[in-house]
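Wed. Picked up where I left off yesterday with Torsin family 2 member A. The coffee machine is broken again, so keeping this brief.
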Amino acid sequence: MERGGGAFAGTRLPFLLLLLLLPLPGLMLSGALWRPSAWHCSLSATCECEFLPDLTGLECELALSLVGQPLARQLVLQGLKSFVQDPEPAKPLVLSFHGSTGTGKTYLTSLLARHLFRTPYVHRFSPLIHFPHADHLQQYKDDLRNWIQGNLTRCSRSLFLFDEMDDLQPGLMDVVAPFLGSSWVVFGTNYRKAIFVFISNTGADQINRMALELWRDRRDREEISRRDLEASILEAISKDPQNGFWRSGILEQNLIDIFVPFLPLRQHHVKQCVVNEMAGQGLTPSPDVVDGVADSFSYFPEEEKIFSSTGCKTVSSRIPFFL
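Structure written out below (tokens, as returned):
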């Protein structure tokens, strides 16, 4: 939902429905609305809407730029390969990303959008931008249901990203749950080829605790498996009444296919983030700059200072101070 975000901040339903019938700006300029394929996409369950997944490119970029997250990389690639290779999936692919700030959750969603969807069919929702007022909950629910249904009618190959699930109003996700199951259609719309990704900090304490315990046992953090963390993440979400998943039916109906844990980053990971960022800016990484930026971060726990408190989140803004 990177375009037209204001639609959820108080737009009347008829106007929203009108927006759903209009093409996105890029399509208007290209005249794509009038191509026969555009009409076919809105009527057929088989239309791929220019869905051209580059899983090889995604795997390569994840290996190079998603720092310190081998488990997340493995889980996401496995889930995507199985889903994309199935011409008639039984349900949408539903992923839930969990971990501390700055560990790569949002960055990974940007890579998914880049390598899977070379079209406007990527929709990102933010609580502060799209659902800011608690007293507008029913309007937001109606708008969100219509937005998802309208865009899936236009293209069943769509990506829906929900940021900051911790700040999402409980109750809003009630209208999303019906789109995540294994039924053939919802509200007359085929939706089984869609991908939904939820991003949350909930569960970070459990993930960080396990990583710290492994370090203290002199074991590698990369030994952590999905099985080690999934139950504790699910428990953390289930017990948090302020979380967007609260009593939505998504957890109760087991609609999430993969809980993806993002591990806390150590100082050498932060240094790698600095190197990657400088290279991306066309700068030559120098040891003095890399070490200076990494040393400027705070690390926890207070005694051992093992993991970055903010991951790699502010690397870009810190680099100029050390050049």
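Quick read: Residues 1-45 have pLDDT under 50 and may be disordered.
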